[in-house]
Amino acid sequence: MTTTEERGYTPTVQGTGFRATVQRFGGNLAAMIMPNIGAFIAWGLITALFIPTGWIPNDDFGQLVNPMIFFLLPILIGYTGGRLVHGQRGAVVGAVATVGVAVGAGAVMGTELENASPMFLGAMIIGPATAWLLKQFDALVEDRIRPGFEMLVNNFSAGIIGGGMALLGAWAIGPVMRTVTNAAGDAVSWLVDRNLLPLASILVEPAKVLFLNNAINHGVFGPLGVAEAAETGKSILFMIESNPGPGLGLLLAFFFFGPRNLRATTPAAMIIQFLGGIHEIYFPYVLMKPRLIIAMIAGGAAGVGTFMLTDAGLTATPSPGSIFAYFAVTPRGGYVPMLLGIVISAGVTFAVAAALLGFGRLEPKEDPTTAGGDAAAAVPPDADPQPGTQPAPDREPVAAAAPDQRTSA
């Protein structure tokens, strides 16, 4: 995929190794989802307000829910993915092809949609793929089109490629992706039924600090959570990666027990992470002391376990993952379970991280002899020098007396 000005959601990846490849792939997924987060939030708010179990049940407004989740959101993802690959022309054919995937997954207007699946994963595949095909065609015919036929060729090539991929999506890609999506949902349900969902933190937390958080949240848990929320009005899957509690607990541990030269940086980081929802701010703290990933896993698992026990859930992806976003997408009656899970996850992370940091005892004591300017500044300029601590003051050299010059008679 080509890099555009829209892809600024993950750090620029350098290198060609396995880790760089995974990070680059995750960045591409995030770049398709993040520009459309506003649409996801709009759908979440409409769902929270107007479905039969919402704050203000309304049958007329509630009819917006299914068209948005089965058509609008996938088409936006396919459009954005196509634009990342081949600009506006790629965006158009990506959107056209995504309609085919949506229909192939069972989303047909006027039906009850019991067996349909939101085609976010399918849109992430067919949108960029269709744009790539159009890009290859454009490169093939470039400088070969006779003057005056450019618009004709451009329009018909986009229509033929986009329409053909829409047919392929309806016939093959949509049904396959519906099977994959249902299998992933069944796997999550298997974990939930056996109270094993907290084990997901073993994979999620290490991946997050490798800057794969957006790919995990918006590429995996987001689509599955949207499908679950469409049925039940909320989903715990929105809370697995986005929980701001573990990050807060880690930064608190650094504030009290971390390296002394880093403690002053943590208050601002806490504000950015917990209130602003920018989790990337705490990733370097974990990477500099990798053993702290144990604390992140423990805190994440504790939070997910609490969410499960209290039947917590959100109506949409909280983006960014701040406490304010959590309040905005929490359904009626779900504030106490939500806050309880965040507080417990922060407390567990803080306790484990503090223990791994030795409660500050593992940090070396400051040595006045190596403190440099700070130690020197602590001595008043007019203080009496202690023996052996200060060199003798410099003195102006005294010119040697010139020998008497006598003139011999």
Automatic annotation (TrEMBL):
Pfam families linked to this entry: PTS_EIIC (PF02378)
Function text: The phosphoenolpyruvate-dependent sugar phosphotransferase system (sugar PTS), a major carbohydrate active transport system, catalyzes the phosphorylation of incoming sugar substrates concomitantly with their translocation across the cell membrane. The enzyme II CmtAB PTS system is involved in D-mannitol transport.
Organism: Asanoa siamensis
PANTHER family associated with the record: MANNITOL PERMEASE IIC COMPONENT, PTS SYSTEM MANNITOL-SPECIFIC EIICBA COMPONENT
Membrane-related topology note: Multi-pass membrane protein
Transmembrane segments: 29-55, 61-79, 91-110, 116-134, 155-176, 264-285, 292-314, 334-359
UniProt signal peptide: none
Domain of life per record: Bacteria
Ranges of biased composition (kind: Low complexity): 369-381
Subcellular location: Cell membrane
UniProt entry tagged with the keyword Protease: no
Region (Disordered): 367-409
Protein name: PTS EIIC type-2 domain-containing protein
Primary location recorded for the protein, binned into one broad class: membrane
Keywords annotated in UniProt: Cell membrane, Membrane, Phosphoprotein, Phosphotransferase system, Sugar transport, Transferase, Transmembrane, Transmembrane helix, Transport
Annotated PTS EIIC type-2 domain residues: 25-362
